[in-house]
Design a protein that fits this description.
127 residues; two-stranded antiparallel ribbon; 7 strands; globular
Length: 127
């Protein structure tokens, strides 16, 4: 899959997240936004998996350490959802680590606990 496809997909995901946020507003649990965003993306014909196990690969061994990707869209874009006061550097580090482990290029970090969703979205790339 190309970076152009990942970029196109990220725009669709952001649009769907904005639709969910407009409908629900801030203040709910992360799991509610995850379910609604998964539904919204599936309605658009996209393949969406939630709570995808992400093993750590150590010395060639796959170890299940309990990591889960919130959403994986089209096996191309990881979406990590938050409902926090503000996004912190640890959230960036988490998503970048998931991108490296999954060998993917693009991820979205979306904090639904903001009045205007565009202020809660970060796009991160794995170099």
């Amino acid at each position: 899959m190309s970076r152009e496809e990942a970029n196109r997909l990220s725009n669709v995901i952001i649009g769907a997240a904005i639709a969910v946020h407009r409908e629900l507003g801030p203040g709910l649990l992360e799991s509610a936004y995850e379910a609604c965003l998964k539904y919204e993306l599936a309605q658009q014909g996209l393949q969406v998996e939630s709570q995808v196990p992400q093993p750590v690969i150590y010395k060639g061994i796959h170890l299940d350490c309990g990591y889960r990707l919130d959403l994986l869209v089209e096996d191309l874009v990881i979406v990590e959802l938050k409902t926090v006061e503000s996004l912190q550097p640890i959230h960036d580090a988490q998503l970048l680590t998931y991108l490296k482990l999954k060998k993917l290029w693009l991820g979205l970090l979306i904090n639904f606990n903001v009045p205007i969703l565009k202020n809660g979205i970060k796009r991160l790339v794995n170099h």
